[in-house]
Amino acid sequence: MAITVEKFRELFPEFSPPLPPVATDEQIQMYLDIAETFIDESQWCGNYENAIYFLAAHYLFILVSPSSNISSGPVSSKSFGDVSISYSNLTKSTYTIDEIFLSSTKYGQVFLQMMNAFGSLGILVVC
């Protein structure tokens, strides 16, 4: 199965108009391409395409969302009365830079869970 903008929009309708954040087809394709260069298919136990889509969604969310929507880590607690959200304090000594970066969105968090579940090496730098 091919990795396509259409499939991305099907999986993540929240990036399509009229709902913000809105991503153009060109932005989606660019981040699908970038995600493909960072991920080694042999490391994902048949879940390569899902990994591409979630990593691209992570990048797109950061790109098209106002900075106020990006957390400083995973949500550790929420409240409803007087609205309160607390984030986990991820420190470099405990987590890698990649883990901290990926934990900043729900899409990156799913990508991290997949990485851990499949024993993947995760994002690879290709030279």
What does this structure look like?
It contains five helices and two strands. It is mostly helical and 127 residues long.
What is the element layout, followed by pairings?
Layout: H1 5-11, H2 25-38, H3 48-64, E1 75-79, E2 84-87, H4 97-102, H5 106-117
Antiparallel strand pairs: 1-2
Helix pairs in contact: 2-3, 3-5
Q: How far is it from the N-terminal to the C-terminal residue, by CA?
A: 26 Å
Amount of beta strand: 5-15%
What would the principal axes of the Cα set say about the shape? globular
Q: What's the total number of strands? A: 2
Strand order, sheet with most strands: 1-2
Which residues sit in consecutive blocks of at least 5 with pLDDT less than 50? none
What structural class should be given to the helix and strand makeup?
mainly alpha
What's the SSE pattern? HHHEEHH
By DSSP (H or I, 4+ residues per run), the number of helices equals: 5
- Biggest β-sheet strands, sense, barrel: 2 strands, antiparallel
